[in-house]
Write a structure and sequence with these properties.
With about 450 residues, this protein is of the alpha+beta class. The protein has 6 domains: about 120 residues, Sandwich (Tumour Suppressor Smad4), CATH 2.60.200.20; about 35 residues; about 60 residues, Alpha-Beta Plaits (2-Layer Sandwich); about 60 residues, Histidine-containing Protein, Chain: A, CATH 3.30.1340.30; about 60 residues, Alpha-Beta Plaits; about 60 residues, SH3 type barrels. Helix content is about 30%, strand content about 30%. It has a 6-stranded antiparallel β-sheet, with no helix packed on it. It has a 4-stranded antiparallel β-sheet with strand order 3-4-5-8, with no helix packed on it. A hairpin with a 3-residue loop joins strand 24 and strand 25.
Length: about 450
């Protein structure tokens, strides 16, 4: 029997399987299973999940599922959880079936086969979670008319007194209106997420510290991070000019110094949450090195950002994690333009396939590149190469002119357009060699030995 506990956003039970269900948007009705681990949602090809949503950006948010816990982290603005703005780079525990909006898409995560909320559109979702101020009902017309009759029935002296009182009320109302105009023109702190956005802009202009975090507690801004001496004072002054007040605390002044063992343990936990199989080494104070294998560049970069945010005192991270993307980039940058035109590269999660027929010089270059690749990636990504050197047959003679040809040792005549076995098509025949089309490139291949004779047309 399966037990499911949804209190405090935790699902338990050996048979519990979570699914992401799209409630609204271009992919409405789509559903996919989510296992334990990290899932990047965005528009990039390397992201794990994507929607046909023009407002979606690369690596827009991350979903982490571990032991029944669901955690959402916005990596870019525009993510709402339950109708509320989700701060970027701030992990949030998600209760099952809570609607999450990113761009024009709304989805929910819950047990597979369970019921999900029904939302027809983003506009309906906003109406359900928006605030509606109560309107003031107008008094019925007969009552207003009755009030007018009472005034007209008063004696003339009373009516004159009422008129005088009315003038006093008009003057008082004019003064009150001016106060409201002055109050409207006076800048004031904007509550909620607007305050955080203003504070982010102020900090961006100041160019202060690293890993600075902004939070809101009881309408008061809380700012902490790796600040240099004097930066806390500069931040407070700049925020004051913007109409905001904040508690600014340099992290270095309050953070607990972690042992190397603790830093390694925390780093390994974060890396595993992103599906990265790696090792961590602590170097100089505030610096760590991470190595191993990651599914993609985007996931590794997100993990490095999380390490800087979650581990006190870590300022420098030497990232040498191997990924399929980095393996391809290495091959493309380590080879010359001529060699790149001769080879075909196919990248898979744990192997890189390289194939092509090469000239003797290009084949020698490729052997050097392959050796360097093995040194860098062999422990995580295997190289499977199918490259062979192409060799011209020995030429006894060369005939040049309007219809050039080569006579090889066995007497065969090769002309322009003929294919040389396992090599390529002859494009041009010249005195010192042949231009051969290999793949998409025309490559000059010299004769292995000087031909016995070379003749012009009409002189052979």
């Amino acid at each position: 029997m399966r037990k499911t506990n949804t209190e405090q956003g935790v699902l338990t039970g050996d048979q519990t399987q979570l699914s992401l269900h799209v409630l609204s948007g271009p992919n409405k009705g789509a559903e996919t299973s989510l296992g334990d681990g990290a899932w990047l949602v965005g528009s990039h090809d390397a992201d794990d999940l994507t929607f046909a949503d023009p407002e979606l950006v690369d690596s827009h948010l991350r979903i982490v599922i571990e032991a029944g816990h669901i955690q959402i982290t916005a990596l870019a603005p525009g993510v709402l959880i339950g109708g509320s703005d989700c701060l970027t780079e701030c992990p949030t525990t998600l209760d099952p079936r809570t609607p999450v909006q990113v761009g024009r898409t709304i989805f929910s995560i819950g047990p597979t086969g369970g019921s999900f909320p029904e939302i027809d559109s983003v506009d309906e979702y906003r109406r359900l979670h928006g605030e509606h101020a109560p309107s003031t009902p107008e008094e019925p017309a007969p009552r207003r008319r009755g009030a007018g009759l009472v005034v007209n029935s008063l004696p003339r002296a009373f009516r004159l007194g009422a008129a005088a009182c009315g003038l006093v009320i008009i003057v008082y109302g004019g003064c009150a209106g001016m106060e409201r105009v002055v109050s409207y023109l006076t800048p004031a702190a904007v509550p909620g997420t607007d305050s955080i956005k203003i504070a982010r802009n102020v900090l961006g202009d100041l160019d202060v510290g690293r890993g600075v975090r902004i939070a809101l507690s009881d309408d008061n801004l809380i700012i902490d991070g790796d600040l240099r001496p004097g930066e806390a004072t500069r931040i407070k002054a700049a925020l004051r000019d913007a109409g905001l007040t904040a508690d600014v605390t340099p992290k270095s002044g309050t953070a607990t110094v972690l042992s190397d063992e603790k830093v390694i343990d925390l780093s390994a936990t974060i890396m595993r949450a992103f599906g990265i199989d790696g090792s961590i080494r602590v170097g100089s104070p505030g610096a760590i090195s991470v190595a191993g294998y990651g599914p993609s560049d985007a996931i590794v970069k997100a993990a490095v950002r999380q390490l800087q945010l979650d581990i006190p005192g870590v300022r420098t991270i030497n990232d040498t994690v191997a990924t399929p993307d980095r393996a391809r980039t290495f091959l493309e940058t380590a080879t010359t333009a001529e060699l790149r035109r001769m080879i075909r590269i196919v990248v898979k999660p744990d192997v890189v396939l390289v194939s092509g027929t090469l000239t003797p010089a290009a084949y020698s270059e490729w052997q050097t590149v392959a050796s360097r690749f093995e040194e860098k990636f062999a422990s995580h990504i295997r190289l499977e190469a199918h490259c062979s050197p192409g060799v011209l047959p020995l030429a006894r003679g060369v005939h040049l002119g309007r219809s050039p040809f080569i006579i090889v040792q066995n007497g065969t005549r090769l002309k322009v357009g003929d294919n040389i076995d396992h090599f390529g098509k002859i494009v041009v025949i010249e005195r010192d060699g042949v231009l051969v089309r290999i793949g998409e490139a025309d490559v000059h291949v010299p004769y292995l030995i000087k031909p016995e004779w070379i003749a012009e047309e009409g002189r052979l």
